[in-house]
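Limitations

Structures in this collection are predictions, not experimental determinations, and the ligand pose is part of the prediction. Treat each record accordingly. The example that follows, with heme C as the small molecule, is included so readers can see exactly what is and is not provided: the inputs are given verbatim, and the output is the predicted complex.
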Amino acid sequence: MKARFDGIRRSEAKGTRQMRILGLVILVLLIVLGVCGWVFAHTWSIGANNSPGAIERMVASHTKSFFVKRAASAGLPQESASSPDSISNGHTIYGGSCAGCHGYDGRTPTTLGRSMSPRAPSLAGEGAQSWSDGELFVIVRDGLRMTGMPAFGSVHQSDEIWDVVHYVRSIPNSAPRH
Ligand code: HEC
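Predicted complex:
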């Protein structure tokens, strides 16, 4: 009988010790979180003159890629064929709708574009050119939330957006112009 009570007492004591250790671990975690929160609140800035840090860039880039690819695979209006006429029409639309940020030649972002965070990029670069035509269509039609990239779906018809996509594709082969 006594041995059984001793056994119960021992397991109760063990349970209490485990609870104390768990409490201590939670307390330490809360202190670490609190310190991180304090440092973040006192060093991070909402201003657009700061470029996003490496972690923010990585998270944003993966998120952007996931949602753009998902939207592009959901079925898009039939792509028109690329032709000199389509590229030329795309260039005209580009001049009115895009050049203000990405630069007249598509590869020299303007001061306004470079003052955004994230910065408006050159469209001749690997970043822009690695998207498929459909993904470029989605970016132009729907824009990129929480960046300066507007949605043009209510400004331009689908075939005009395809023309802009064809123009964007032609930028790396065109001569720089300002
Ligand atoms: C008001 C400024 C602004 C205008 C106007 C604008 N963009 Fe953008 N665009 C941006 C910014 C800022 C980004 C960067 C977004 C990011 O990093 O996620 C961007 C990103 C893009 C990207 C993705 C580039 C990449 O490297 O992944 C493409 C493609 C693009 N824009 C095309 C266009 C086209 C085509 C137009 C016109 C129809 C246009 N943009 C008009 C600001 C603008």
